[in-house]
């Protein structure tokens, strides 16, 4: 046992020593917590210098940690010497290769030191003098996070303000030992850490960890002066810092600071409305919660009255209902989910529907707002040492080389990986026999296709089945060097999206033919440089998020699908997101049997089309497109959101276009807001006002009467366009002259999807359900990134290549007008498709508080009698009956026979 301990100590001593300086004064309980956060670090070779700045004796506290492996060196001063002198005293005592600070009222997460040290030890960061992490500021009384420091590194920004709390950073010792001899300025008693960072920045760059691993405690306003400080004292300290540094900064430095400040001011001006939304009055919020709680009590009382009635107690079917309300505890994670589960079951139960119908819709909507479950936050792993790799292998024949391929993936020196294989219905019977031999391998997942789907569909199937943070591509007749993944990920950076390597070409017997790499190429602009020919190839490792962002492989481009994927990623991501390493890690097999002439022709045609579409995206971004676009937006309340939607269009649409804003009978307050804050603000905007509300279909029809475009985009006024949305939407619409409509990928603020297109489920020859593709899934779920044909297109964020006014009429007063338009387009032979790379965020009222005209909007939008009219119109036009749970319940349609229902809809 002693030998094992000695071995562990040797390993620790071989690690670089980190000195952590803790300044303290008369806060024993907090000091104990701070020291515990250090002794709990995953990195163990740490010395702690505790500087007691004239406070009570801390020997007893130090004694609590005598058994820890970490060394603690106390420094005691009889009287207070001040923050800066205390910091310098700690620096003089520190002997570590790296140094950090922690004040006694703050604390660190266990991985803080480890993650920052790994950044500074990385040879690619040799020019960096410090690494810093994100910091959360926590109110001691409430436990709430009141501020986050997690800003990307920007030298000009650091000269403008200090966004790096003192315990956020780890820095190299040479900055205090070298000629610069950086020290805390002892004339400062506030912003001394800012001044220290400016000294360090003059010696080199900083590198940022995106993880939040440090905590800043705010206790009754007595600490956290970097967050909460006396205004006059802060101004005096600011003057002192500026007086010291203004003579050290060059003219270029000052221009850089001013440019950054002006950009910041411009951004703040554009988001002033949003900031005001976030600064809600606390009393108003509490009042809203009180009203909601009262509404819940009212429902509970009504429910109790029903449950205690004689008929309820003696009726057998209703006793059975009680069993349907039983909740499985294993499926309930939160109180909100439990309440929502009960409400849903109550809505769906025929015995409770009479009670549900008595509840005003606004109250039901409020309950939905309170209790609807939210999609869970998705933690995106970025640290290369924590990335899970999925090696995907599409298989079609090649049994001769398949075993070598799979073994090369399984025997990688990198441990955190899986191998996902799909046999695309290979005619070669040996393939199945070989794959069956790997069924007991824990790292392998094997899929089989019933029919041959082609390379794009097979790779998409593999991507969806994979679970890795990054995806490595391997063809079934090729193989990898044993350390290929480990070497590749050693070059992966925080912002890397696409990595590629060199390759060795081999013949059918495995003999080397030649070696290919691309280190001689400039790689200044991956989009333009790969537009001529693809060089970002073997071995390809791509971040999972990239596929979610741009869409999966397009089946149109089989044989050149990887080139199309590269060009889409290169369009949406900057060149610095691409990494090339010259190592020849991929063995690519060349076969004697040459590709057929027809296959060469197909690949050439696909390549040319990919280049044409890539060029079109670039031209659209630069303001050139063959069609004039009319964007149609209805306004009915939601005045602030209307402005935000228009600002997002202004930012993302560069081609010639017009925006028709049609106010559809809003309240005077909304009309006044549009006239004073929107009208005249946008050069390409035309505003029209209507005295009464026409409903969504007739309102859009009237708006379209004023449009002069060739193509038309319906864009709701509570949506925000993501950069790149318009380029993908227009290229998708241009891909086939028979496309009549293209819908965007519409996402709620919690990253759950509203839809990525619509499909129709036929319950019988007449009865249908209007369903939505990917509803409720996380937008980074790769199932949501597929290219699809749609049965119908929801209208709220959709492009039409023909004017939809032809199919919009008063017969759809509040719902189903989009389904009606879609069916009309299909009758004319038009295709309806989705566009997975066109992202639009939907700020739905469920996620947004204090919306003007909310009650009026809800009452009109969800009026069940008007919905009957829409059902009737759809039936008359298409001979199909839409089954909708809300409409059927509120209008008592569930008890009707089919003949009675048809009679009602035929009126």
TrEMBL record:
Residues 19-176, 390-549, 630-756 form the Glycosyltransferase 2-like domain. CDD domains: Glyco_tranf_GTA_type (cd00761). InterPro entries: Glyco_trans_2-like, Nucleotide-diphossugar_trans. It comes from the Bacteria. This is Glycosyltransferase. It comes from Candidatus Methylobacter oryzae. The lineage of its organism: Bacteria, Pseudomonadati, Pseudomonadota, Gammaproteobacteria, Methylococcales.
């Amino acid at each position: 046992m002693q030998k094992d301990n000695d071995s562990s100590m040797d390993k620790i001593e071989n690690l670089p020593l980190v000195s952590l300086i803790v300044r303290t004064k008369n806060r024993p309980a907090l000091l104990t917590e701070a020291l515990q956060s250090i002794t709990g670090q995953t990195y163990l070779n740490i010395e702690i210098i505790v500087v007691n700045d004239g406070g009570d004796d801390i020997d007893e506290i130090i004694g609590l940690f005598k058994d820890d492996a970490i060394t603690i060196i106390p420094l005691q001063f009889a009287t207070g010497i001040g923050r800066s002198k205390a910091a310098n005293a700690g620096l003089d005592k520190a002997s570590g290769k790296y140094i950090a600070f922690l004040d006694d009222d703050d604390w660190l997460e266990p991985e803080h030191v480890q993650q920052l040290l790994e950044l500074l030890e990385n040879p690619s960061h040799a020019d960096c003098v410090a690494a810093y992490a994100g910091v959360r500021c926590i109110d001691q009384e409430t436990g709430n996070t009141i501020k986050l420091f997690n800003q990307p590194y920007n030298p000009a920004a650091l000269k403008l303000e200090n966004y790096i709390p003192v315990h956020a950073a780890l820095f190299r010792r040479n900055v205090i030992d070298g000629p610069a001899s950086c020290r805390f300025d002892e004339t400062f008693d506030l912003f001394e850490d800012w001044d220290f960072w400016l000294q360090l920045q003059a010696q080199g760059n900083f590198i940022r960890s995106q993880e939040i691993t440090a905590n800043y405690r705010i206790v009754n306003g007595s600490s956290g002066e970097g967050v909460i400080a006396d205004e006059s004292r802060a101004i005096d300290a600011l003057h002192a810092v500026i007086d010291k540094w203004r003579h050290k900064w060059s003219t270029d430095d000052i221009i850089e600071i001013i440019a950054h400040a002006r950009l910041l001011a411009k951004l703040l001006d554009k988001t002033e409305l949003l900031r005001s939304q976030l600064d809600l009055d606390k009393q108003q919020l509490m009042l809203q919660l009180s009203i909601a709680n009262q509404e819940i009590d009212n429902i509970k009382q009504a429910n109790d009255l029903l449950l205690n009635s004689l008929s309820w107690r003696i009726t057998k079917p209703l006793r059975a209902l009680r069993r349907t309300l039983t909740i499985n505890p294993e499926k309930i994670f939160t109180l909100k989910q439990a309440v929502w589960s009960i409400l849903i079951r109550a809505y769906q139960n025929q015995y409770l529907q009479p009670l549900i119908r008595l509840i005003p819709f606004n109250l039901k909507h409020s309950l939905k707002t309170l209790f609807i479950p939210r999609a869970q936050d998705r933690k995106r792993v970025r640290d290369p040492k924590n990335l899970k790799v999925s090696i995907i292998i599409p298989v079609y024949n090649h049994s001769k080389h398949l075993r070598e391929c799979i073994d090369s993936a399984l025997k990688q020196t990198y441990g955190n990986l899986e191998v996902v294989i799909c046999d695309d219905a290979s005619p070669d019977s040996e393939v199945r026999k070989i794959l069956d031999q790997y069924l007991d391998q824990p790292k392998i997942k094997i899929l089989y296709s019933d029919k041959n789907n082609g390379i794009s569909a097979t790779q998409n199937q593999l991507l969806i089945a994979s679970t890795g943070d990054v995806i490595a591509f391997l063809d079934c007749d090729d193989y990898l060097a044993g350390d290929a993944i480990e070497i590749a990920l050693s070059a992966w950076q925080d912002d890397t999206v696409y990595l590629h390597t060199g390759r060795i070409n081999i013949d059918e017997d495995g003999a080397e033919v030649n070696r290919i790499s691309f280190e001689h190429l400039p790689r200044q602009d991956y989009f333009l440089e790969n537009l001529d020919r693809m060089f970002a190839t073997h071995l390809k490792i791509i971040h999972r998020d990239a596929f979610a962002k741009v869409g999966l492989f397009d089946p149109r481009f089989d044989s050149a699908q990887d080139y199309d994927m590269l060009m889409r990623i290169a369009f949406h991501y900057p060149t610095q997101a691409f990494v090339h390493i010259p190592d020849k890690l991929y063995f690519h097999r060349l076969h004697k049997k040459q590709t057929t002439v027809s296959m060469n022709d197909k690949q050439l045609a696909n390549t040319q089309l990919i280049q044409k579409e890539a060029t079109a995206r670039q031209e659209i971004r630069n303001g050139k497109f063959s069609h004039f676009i009319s964007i149609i937006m209805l306004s009915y309340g939601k005045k602030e959101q209307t402005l935000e939607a228009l600002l997002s269009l202004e930012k993302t649409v560069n081609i010639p276009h017009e925006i028709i804003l049609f106010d559809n009978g809003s309240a005077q307050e909304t009309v006044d807001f549009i006239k004073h804050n929107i009208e005249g603000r946008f050069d390409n905007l035309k505003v029209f006002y209507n005295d009464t509300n026409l409903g969504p279909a007739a309102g859009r029809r009237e708006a379209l009467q004023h449009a002069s475009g060739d193509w038309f985009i319906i864009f709701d006024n509570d949506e925000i366009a993501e950069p790149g949305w318009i380029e993908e939407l227009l290229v998708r619409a241009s891909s086939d002259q028979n496309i009549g409509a293209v819908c965007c990928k519409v996402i709620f603020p919690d990253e759950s999807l509203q839809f990525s297109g619509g499909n129709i489920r036929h319950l019988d020859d007449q009865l249908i359900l209007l369903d939505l593709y990917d509803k409720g899934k996380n937008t980074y779920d790769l199932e949501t990134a597929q290219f699809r044909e749609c049965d119908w297109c929801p209208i709220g964020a959709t492009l039409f290549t023909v004017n939809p006014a032809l199919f919009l009429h008063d017969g759809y007063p509040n719902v189903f007008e989009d389904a009606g338009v879609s069916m009309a387009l299909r009758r004319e032979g038009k295709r309806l498709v989705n566009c997975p790379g066109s992202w639009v965020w939907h700020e739905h009222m469920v996620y947004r508080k204090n919306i003007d005209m909310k009650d009026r909007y809800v009452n009109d939008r969800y009026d069940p009698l008007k919905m009957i009219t829409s059902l009737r119109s759809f039936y008359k036009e298409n001979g199909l009956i839409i089954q909708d749970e809300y409409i059927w319940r509120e209008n008592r349609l569930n008890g009707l026979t089919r003949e009675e229902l048809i009679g009602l809809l035929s009126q």
